[in-house]
Design brief:
There is one protein chain. The protein has about 425 residues and is of the alpha+beta class. The chain has four domains: about 1-105, no CATH class; about 110-200, Beta-Lactamase (2-Layer Sandwich), CATH 3.30.450.20; about 200-275, Helix Hairpins (Orthogonal Bundle), CATH 1.10.287; about 280-435, Heat Shock Protein 90, CATH 3.30.565.10. It is about 55% helix and about 15% strand. The strands form three sheets. The chain has a five-stranded antiparallel beta sheet. Strands 7-9-10-12-11 form a five-stranded mixed beta sheet, covered by helices on one side. Strands 6-8-13 form a three-stranded antiparallel beta sheet. Helix 1 runs antiparallel to helix 2, helix 9 (about 240-275) runs parallel beside helix 13 (about 395-405) and helix 10 (about 285-300) packs parallel to helix 11. It is elongated. The N and C termini lie far apart (about 95 Å). The model has no long low-confidence stretch (mean pLDDT about 90). The structure holds adenosine-5'-diphosphate. Adenosine-5'-diphosphate binds near residues 330, 381 and 398.
Length: about 425
């Protein structure tokens, strides 16, 4: 193609020269030169016009094949080649754009943040997740040293130590209370990829696990210390006093019962928390369940309180009898434990606004408002000694909360110090079953 184009152009110049020579021979040399000059001038105008069109085209920003100027003569084939070239370029550009878009979609979908750092630890690029994690604004901060954005000493040391085989845990980031796992991956010529992962929820679970183990150890240590103390005393040679032995045995029994209650409550909690343990549903006759709990409350109170039971609805609940017994029983037992002698306790079941409502109201010690949101946390107690004196494990309301969650029910607590408390369970309408059904 290229050779034929060259021959075509040489042919044109050769033809002009031959025609000029012939004209010169036939007429006079002056006419030959004149013809030759006119022909060359025409060629110069022709090429200059096309060169200007080409330059104008080169200067525009959007180089599409349709924008290429049309040409005549040799320029026709030059512009056709150019159009083919632009077409193939735009095809590869489209492919590149598509791949880039896919890559951007993948990085946007990644839960991890990514920052590209150059050999001087300057930010070259980062994704939106990293912007959020590290408080970077790529538009403003591109080219900034990463240590200007992440100023924690541990991070600066991690970066300078250049031992990137281990990740770094960064707590309490500047902009928000995040805990991040940072990993630097070296690549290319001293470049680095910084990957940040939000591990705040893992951290919270880990803290909860640590607190839980510490709490259980603490709860078990006290009764074990008491039991050990009495055992040492009984083992001592001069411990033949039968009165003392009876006292020691009674105290050890009490502590053993306390440990047993704790273990039972822990097992109940773990059963309730196990996602695989599905709710064993049946139609629960709440009025008859409350009659049972009322009798138990009367014997636990042993005449120290006035206890009323009002059943204002015959409706039943779809749920687990065993779990509901434990939740409602816990609230009633708490009312007895935290109400001084002579106080009153009301137990009530009714349907209100298509919701099943179970209330336990007492005229007991009451709770200060700041404690109320935390009462269902494991081992949270307002008054440690009162809870322990009355045999509490600190897990009762945590069990109630789990049971209610499994029944899509809610617990509402209202209380006034010195006047008493009201614990109300609200069951959703979908769990109510009218007795006639
Ligand atoms: P505990 O075994 O300590 O009673 P719970 O989880 O049942 O544990 O209750 C948590 C805390 O809530 C108790 O320690 C107590 O301070 C408070 N509480 C629960 N019920 C009542 C109530 N009816 N009156 C006053 N305080 C209560």
């Amino acid at each position: 193609m290229r050779a034929s184009g060259l021959f075509q152009r040489l042919g044109t110049v050769f033809s002009v020269a031959v025609i000029a020579l012939l004209i010169g021979m036939i007429t006079s040399a002056v006419y030959g030169w004149f013809f030759m000059s006119a022909a060359l001038l025409f060629l110069i105008i022709h090429h200059t016009r096309h060169l200007i069109a080409l330059e104008e085209w080169l200067l525009i920003s959007d180089h599409t094949p349709s924008s290429i100027p049309s040409g005549s003569g040799a320029w026709n084939s030059i512009f056709a080649h150019l159009a083919r070239y632009v077409r193939s370029q735009s095809k590869s550009q489209q492919l590149l754009d598509l791949e880039l878009k896919q890559l951007q979609n993948v990085t946007a979908a990644m839960p991890d943040g990514m920052v590209i750092l150059d050999d001087g630890d300057h930010i070259q690029w980062c994704d939106p997740v990293a912007e959020k994690h590290l408080g970077i604004n790529l538009e403003l901060d591109s080219g900034q040293q990463i240590t200007n954005m992440v100023r924690q000493q541990s991070f600066v040391e991690y970066l300078t130590a250049r031992k990137f085989n281990k990740p770094l845990v960064l707590k309490q980031m500047r902009h928000h209370r995040l805990t991040l796992l940072i990993q630097l991956v070296p690549y290319g010529k001293n470049q680095k990829l910084l990957i940040s992962r939000d591990i705040t929820s893992y951290e919270r679970i880990e803290t909860m696990r640590r607190d839980f183990v510490a709490n259980i150890s603490h709860e078990l240590r006290t009764p074990l210390t008491v039991v050990n103390g009495y055992l040492e005393m009984l083992a001592a040679e001069n411990s033949n006093d039968p009165e003392m032995q009876r006292f020691a045995l009674a105290a050890m029994q009490e502590q053993a019962a306390r440990m047993q209650r704790l273990v039972e409550d822990l097992l109940t909690l773990s059963r309730l928390e196990n996602a695989l343990n599905r709710l064993n549903e049946s139609t629960v006759n709440i009025p008859s369940l409350l009659q049972e709990l009322y009798q138990e409350a009367m014997s636990l109170s042993a005449g120290k309180h006035t206890i009323h039971l009002s059943i204002n609805s015959d409706d039943l609940i779809l749920g687990s009898r065993e779990e509901l017994r434990s939740a409602m029983g816990n609230l009633i037992i708490n009312a007895i434990r935290y109400t001084p002698e002579g106080g009153e306790i009301d137990i009530c079941w009714e349907v209100n606004n298509s919701k099943g409502m179970f209330y336990v109201r007492d005229t007991g010690v009451g709770i200060e408002p700041q404690h109320i949101p935390r009462l269902t946390e494991r081992f949270y107690r307002v008054d440690n000694s009162r809870s322990r004196e009355t045999g509490g494990t600190g897990l009762g309301l945590a069990i109630v909360k789990h049971v209610l969650n499994r029944h899509q029910a809610r617990l509402k607590i209202t209380s006034e110090v010195g006047k008493g408390s009201e614990f109300c369970i609200q069951f959703p309408g979908k769990r109510l079953i009218a007795r006639s059904n």
